[in-house]
Structures are given as structure tokens and as C-alpha cells.
Design a protein that fits this description.
Elements (H helix, E strand, L loop, with lengths): L3 H5 L8 H17 L6 E7 L5 H15 L12 E5 L2 H12 L9 E2 L1 H11 L3 E7 L19 H6 L2 E8 L13 H8 L3 E7 L9 H13 L15 E4 L3 H15 L2 E5 L13 E4 L2 E4 L20 E2 L1 H4 L4 E8 L3 E3 L6 E3 L19 H20 L2 E9 L2 H17 L1
Parallel strand pairs: 1-5, 1-6, 2-3, 2-4, 4-5, 7-15, 8-11, 8-12, 12-15
Antiparallel strand pairs: 9-10, 13-14
Length: 409
């Protein structure tokens, strides 16, 4: 029996015409450049929820099927599916176990494959990289990566790479990327850029999606409009975190896969103990390390934990209750949002880099990472988004605007 994550990412899932066209173009690109003297890269961009991972899943199944066909240009090729996200890797390996054309050993974390090929002095033909914005862009001894950039390391050992990239899902300094940085790195190589723009995850209207993008990308508090409230998507603002938790529990009882999540700003130390997110009467521990093969959100007991970007990125929830933590504040003009870096409590994600010394760049990158995390978490919910903000001014402004729009709807 498949869980929801494997169903969503199944290589057997039907595609939209745009997604199918992208798969076809990717196959053509691979075959065209498979024997070039230098690596070739196809970049697939698109917002969260546009089906990038589904496209990669189907693409890789086709590649692995054709490697067994003697009349295909991909016959006997060596190919890998890479993702630098342990929870997502569990899902892909489960999918591989259910499909005779896929092998679990072909699904790897980048560091594992880079170190393995480096030791063997070997290369491979095609690499498909999901969530390429999670690739390390600096050495990381904790993850046993001693190169300078994982994408560059992979380009040295691959003939063709197909990568998914979304600069609005970059979440840590050690994986800090911008579109400009990626373009600069890829400049010496043959490349092609394609994009997806249809929203498949969220049932929200374009008005709600535009509001989220204004909030997370422009850092502007746009008006909440009466047309936010329809039968397809449940958008709510709360002025009490415990009431929001109770609403999420109710939704979880009705529809399943409903969880409370939060941004940085609450005690969070990797010491094996429990650390709590507290807001008034609300008190729940952060998500615990998941040693099982079941994705975090699909474990029933995690209704009593607070999810984070580390457990939720790349996954669908039905309803998400988001706590926006202390670092995010409403500016004095009551329109713009600010980030107070002194209130960030995720030292690993925001550990400074030796190659980033410009204070303005560091400040901009820090703000981007915090707002990107909110972008990722706001776009987890298929059927609804509930929001509570720690900052009193932001909470009051959101709640007043919500009540006013709700009255007019």
C-alpha cells in the first residue's frame, strides 16, 4: 500500500501537457548531449507546488527503462537520481522498491555518490537532481563533503545533469544559491533552462498565491481580500496559537495530514533532547529526528510535534498551521516586513561562510533565507493555510485585515 507521498511522486502518475512536454524535451536534451566532450545541464525552474518532482520521477523511470533497451541511445548507461534531503530520499527509495525498472541503489544523496565515484575514479552518464537548491555550495565536514561546491563536483563526473532549482526554496547558508550564482557557475557548460508555472499542490486562488508571494518575496503585507474565502481552500488568520492548533487537530481528524509548523525563533539545539515552541497556552516540541522509512508528516504521532523546513520541504500536507516566529516583524510603515537576525535560533542553517564577508550581502542573504522558509511552509497545504504570528504588531494587523475581509465575503 502506497502512502500519500509515494502516490504524489509516483512515476506512473499522469502529467499535464506542460509537464509531459518538459519530460519530452529533457529526454531529447539528454540524448543530444550524452556523448559531448563537456557536460550539459538542463535546469527546470518553478515555484513550490508546480510538479517539478513529479516530472523528475517520470523522467528517471523513462531513462532507466531505456537503459535496458538495445535500440536506445541510453542503452547500458549508468544513471543516478540525487536529492540532498533525507526525508525525500526515503520516499524515492520506497517508490523504487515498488517499480521493477528502478533500483534503490540508484537513488543517492549527492555526498555519498561524489565520494564513491571519487574513490573509484569513475564517471556516470545521467544525473537527475531534485531540490538542487539544497546542494552544498561550500565544504561541509559534517556531511563528509570536502569539495567546494557539490554541483561543480557532480559536473566533473557526469555527462548530463537534469536539475530542479527554485531560488525561493534556498534555506541555509551552506546551500546558499541565487539564480545569478547558478548562471555564473554554469556559464562554461552547455545548458538549457525550462520552467513550470502551473500550480498543482495548492487549491488556493491566484489571489491567495499572489498574497503569499508578496509576503515572502517582496516582504509586503498586501490586503487580505474577500475573494480569499472559497470552498476550495481554507485561509485563516489566528490571534491565538493554541486555537490554531486545535483547528489543525480537528482538520487532521477529518482529512488527515494536517500539521502545525513553525519558522526559526524558538529554542532548537541538536542535543537529542526535546525543545519546545511556546506561544501563550500553546506548547509542543519540535519535530524529532525520524529514524523510520515513513515520512514525518505521515506518522500519526507527529500531530503532537511542530514541523520544520527539515521535515516538510518537498512534501504535501492537507492543512498547515504556520507559526511565524520572533525574527519576522512588521515595519513601522505597517506594510513592509523586517527580519531581526538576532532572534534566529537555528545556528546550523545560518552559520556564516568564509566566502561571504560583505555585511550587506550577509544581511540580504539572512533575510532571504528566513523569508524562503516561510514561503516553503506556507505552500505545504493543499486544502488550507492557517497563520499565527509571534510579533504583536504583525499579528494584530493580520487579524484585523482577516476579520474585515471575512465580514465582507
Amino acid at each position: 500500500m502506497q502512502n500519500q507521498a509515494t502516490e504524489i511522486l509516483s512515476p506512473e502518475k499522469s502529467l499535464s501537457s506542460q509537464q509531459q512536454q518538459l519530460v519530452d524535451e529533457a529526454i531529447h536534451f539528454i540524448k543530444l548531449h550524452l556523448h559531448d566532450t563537456q557536460p550539459a545541464v538542463l535546469v527546470i525552474s518553478g515555484d513550490a507546488g508546480t510538479g517539478k518532482s513529479v516530472v523528475l520521477s517520470q523522467l528517471f523511470r523513462i531513462i532507466q527503462h531505456e537503459r535496458t533497451q538495445s535500440d536506445s541511445k541510453l542503452f547500458n548507461t549508468t544513471n543516478y537520481f540525487l536529492v540532498n534531503h533525507p526525508e525525500l530520499l526515503k520516499v524515492y527509495r520506497e517508490i523504487a522498491g515498488q517499480n521493477t525498472e528502478l533500483r534503490k541503489k540508484d537513488f543517492q544523496r549527492p555526498t555519498t555518490l561524489i565520494n564513491q565515484l571519487s574513490k573509484a575514479q569513475a564517471k556516470f552518464d545521467v544525473g537527475v537532481i531534485d531540490e538542487a537548491h539544497l546542494l552544498l555550495s561550500q565544504p561541509d565536514h559534517y556531511n563528509n563533503f570536502y569539495g567546494h561546491n557539490q554541483l561543480l563536483s557532480l559536473l566533473k563526473v557526469a555527462h548530463v545533469l537534469i536539475i530542479v532549482f527554485d531560488e525561493h526554496q534556498v534555506l541555509r547558508f551552506k546551500t546558499y544559491w541565487s539564480k545569478a550564482q547558478l548562471q555564473q557557475l554554469l556559464r562554461p557548460f552547455t545548458q538549457k533552462w525550462l520552467s513550470l508555472d502551473e500550480q498543482f499542490r495548492m487549491q488556493a486562488s491566484s489571489s491567495v498565491l499572489n498574497w503569499i508571494n508578496d509576503f515572502t518575496q517582496k516582504r509586503i503585507l498586501s490586503p487580505i481580500k474577500p475573494n480569499f474565502f472559497d470552498h476550495n481552500y481554507d485561509f485563516q488568520i489566528f490571534d491565538d496559537a493554541e486555537q490554531m492548533r486545535q483547528a489543525i487537530v480537528s482538520r487532521n481528524n477529518q482529512a488527515g495530514l494536517s500539521r502545525v509548523v513553525a519558522t526559526t525563533g524558538y529554542p532548537s539545539v541538536l542535543d537529542g533532547g526535546q525543545h519546545y515552541v511556546r506561544e501563550g497556552q500553546f506548547k509542543l516540541p519540535w519535530d524529532q529526528y525520524n529514524y523510520t522509512t515513513t515520512p514525518w508528516a505521515e506518522k500519526p504521532e507527529t500531530i503532537n510535534e511542530v514541523g520544520s523546513i527539515y521535515t516538510c520541504q518537498g512534501f504535501d500536507l492537507n492543512y498547515v498551521g504556520l507559526i511565524i516566529g520572533p525574527p519576522v516583524k512588521l515595519a513601522g510603515d505597517h506594510i513592509h516586513l523586517e527580519v531581526d537576525a538576532s532572534l534566529i535560533t537555528d545556528p546550523e542553517a545560518f552559520k556564516r561562510r568564509h566566502d561571504m564577508t560583505d555585511p550587506r550581502l550577509i544581511e540580504q542573504a539572512t533575510t532571504d533565507l528566513v523569508m524562503n522558509a516561510i514561503n516553503v511552509l506556507m505552500k505545504r497545504g493543499v486544502k488550507g493555510l492557517y497563520i499565527f504570528a509571534h510579533d504583536q504588531n504583525l499579528r494584530d494587523q493580520l487579524y484585523r485585515a482577516y476579520l474585515n475581509a471575512k465580514t465582507q465575503s
